[in-house]
Write a structure and sequence with these properties.
The complex is a heterodimer. In chain A, 74% of the residues lie in helices and 1% in strands. Chain A is mainly α. Chain A has one domain (2-78, 85-161): Four Helix Bundle (Hemerythrin (Met), subunit A). The longest helix of chain A has 26 residues, at 50-75. Chain A is globular and about 50 Å long. In chain A, 26% of the residues are buried. Chain B has helices at 9-29, 33-58, 62-92, and one strand spanning 7-8. The chains are: A mainly alpha, B mainly alpha. Chains A and B meet through helix 1, helix 2, helix 3, helix 4 and strand 1 of A and strand 1, helix 1, helix 2 and helix 3 of B.
């Protein structure tokens, strides 16, 4: 059952990722990215990361992608019309990336070929309780610094969005 | 090959590598500035999957914390980045990244 869910949602994630790259209209890319994020949330659940899965659905698929869709609709931009990249990129791009993936896959399958299989329920420490204990214990200072980061981001977004450069 | 119908950990890491490479491809090949930005989000998601998978292997919660911080940074980055895109569009009336290439020379 683990294997079934992994294969189904891995295929959805890879298909969505390919679609993000290949679609010419940004709205199609954004909806494909939502599919990738939803299937990644299921994979997080399989890995025992309940809190991260819920945060993925709420923060990424809920907040960030709505922001993207909002900007795309606000700007009302169409698909890409100009031709693509230079000839070298067209010829070499896909083989180089495929080689990169092949090298990484080879290294991973060599390094992690011990019989550690991922079972649903094999790691039960991903609840909001244990995440909260870690955040407000060992990671208290970084957590507080992120609040400053978000404040800076809010101020920056407001200042940039109303700035008139002429 | 693996007992009890589980999934090898390396499959998760390879899936993460594939998604990261797709993000790199989108970042390098696309010309729409919003699609380029979405490719960056795809790369961040791939790295999050690696963090959570390693967290399972080590049986520690630290990887989840890092994934959480990556999400926070991604949210802040999306807010600022989309504000920059709005400003660029206001000034150029275009979302093509080749129209915003003054820093090239």
């Amino acid at each position: 059952m683990d294997l079934f869910f992994f294969v189904v949602f891995a295929v959805v994630a890879i298909g969505g990722g390919v679609s993000v790259v290949l679609q010419t209209h940004p709205i199609s890319s954004a909806l494909s990215l939502v599919a990738v994020m939803g299937s990644l949330a299921v994979l997080y659940l399989l890995l025992g990361a309940e809190f991260i899965a819920m945060a993925q659905v709420i923060v990424y698929a809920g907040a960030i992608m709505v922001l993207f869709l909002f900007v795309i609709m606000l700007l009302n931009s169409g698909g890409e019309t100009k031709p693509g990249r230079s000839a070298m990129v067209k010829v070499l791009g896909v083989p180089v990336l495929a080689g990169f993936v092949a090298i990484i896959a080879y290294v991973f399958s060599l390094s992690f070929n011990d019989t550690l299989a991922v079972h649903f329920g094999g790691f039960s420490d991903g609840s909001a309780r244990s995440i909260g204990r870690a955040i407000f214990g060992a990671y208290l200072l970084p957590f507080e610094v992120t609040s400053v980061l978000i404040l800076v981001a809010i101020l920056g977004a407001v200042v940039l969005a109303r700035k008139e450069l002429d | 090959m693996f007992q009890g119908g589980g999934v090898p950990l390396s499959w998760y890491l390879i899936l993460s590598a594939i998604l990261f490479s797709l993000g790199v491809a989108g970042f390098l090949f696309r010309k729409n500035i919003i699609t380029v930005f979405m490719s960056i989000e795809l790369m961040l998601n791939a790295v999050n999957l690696s963090f959570v998978a390693f967290s399972y292997k080590l049986q520690q919660v630290n990887g989840h914390i890092f994934a959480f911080f990556v999400m926070v940074v991604a949210a802040a980055e999306a807010a600022v980045g989309l504000a920059i895109i709005l400003t660029v569009y206001k000034n150029r009336s275009s979302l093509d990244i080749d129209d915003v290439s003054e820093m090239k020379n």
